[in-house]
Amino acid sequence: MLEQKTKHTDRETRKIALVDGHRLKFDRPLVMGIINVTPDSFSNGHNATLNGGKSTPKQWAERARTMENEGADIIDIGGESTRPGAKPVSADKEMQRVLPVIEEIRKSSTLPISIDTYKSETARAALDTGADIINDISASRLSPDMAKLAAEKKAPLVLMHMLGTPQQMQKNPHYDDCVAEIGQFFEERINYCLDQGVDRSRLILDPGIGFGKRLSDNIEILAGLRAFGRLGLPLLVGTSRKSFINMLHPTNLPANQRIGGSVAAAVVACANGADILRVHDVRQTVEALKVFRAVGEIS
């Protein structure tokens, strides 16, 4: 019988304090389950939009409980589609969608909740309703006071790289050195947040797979994730069901059938240093990561 030994990494000691005093521990890669409370999610199916966006908060909360039982460490809730070309919605509409869901989940779960929004009004209301983390695809560019809110609430803040806005981000994106340019962007946004009073220990970075990226850029980012390790912050990666998978393996199937590619990309991201994996398919991802970690412990 082989003796199993766990390799020591900086994940074993890294933690992030949440709003309620609990902490996210990065002793292993964490899985963030996606709930899109929108009628036009790009990823149709039971993991995305239920009943054409007509589901009740209780039904969404049940979906969150299923994800928790499948092994999710965080639930990420969004009320506005950010797929390429998606039309923006008002903060009022966004809050009407997400706040009742957060409130319902909080009745039965203490699992950390992330609010996926670039609007500070929505983020503030979500935190007041029970959310713990702000996941801002604009890295506090579209709502400049988002960083101040995170500082005020002592909430972890995800800074994601995106070219422009969802409406035009995929119109001829170009980089000379994708990974290096994203790294420079992170440095600028980190300094901005620090100037706004955010504690560096509460920042999380997301290179924004699919947000103003060509296929080659997405692959380069996945291969070069360790380059962002020099910044010393947790790294969140979201590849789940994204179009680059269909570019690599073209089919006529809907996005919710891209499970194999999604899980493979998640494992690659984990192998290259990702700390949080944002996914639709929690059970399959958790299963794959357990195999990956088991092999890593004895190799």
Give a verbal description of the structure.
It is a single chain. The chain is α/β, with parallel strands linked by helices and 299 residues long. It has a single domain (28-82, 92-298), classed as TIM Barrel, CATH 3.20.20.20. The protein is built from 9 helices and 10 strands. It has helices at residues 57-70, 91-106, 120-129, 146-153, 178-195, 215-223, 243-248, 259-271, 282-298, and strands at 15-17, 23-25, 30-36, 74-78, 113-116, 133-136, 157-160, 203-206, 236-237, 276-279. The strands form 2 sheets. It has an 8-stranded parallel β-sheet with strand order 8-7-6-5-4-3-10-9. The protein has a two-stranded antiparallel sheet with strand order 1-2. The longest helix is centred in the middle third of the chain and has 18 residues, at 178-195. It is globular, with a radius of gyration of 18 Å. The model is unreliable at 1-9 and 42-49 (pLDDT under 50).
Summarize it.
37% of the residues lie in helices and 13% in strands. It has helices at 57-70, 91-106, 120-129, 146-153, 178-195, 215-223, 243-248, 259-271, 282-298; strands at residues 15-17, 23-25, 30-36, 74-78, 113-116, 133-136, 157-160, 203-206, 236-237, 276-279. The strands form two sheets. An eight-stranded parallel β-sheet has the order 8-7-6-5-4-3-10-9.
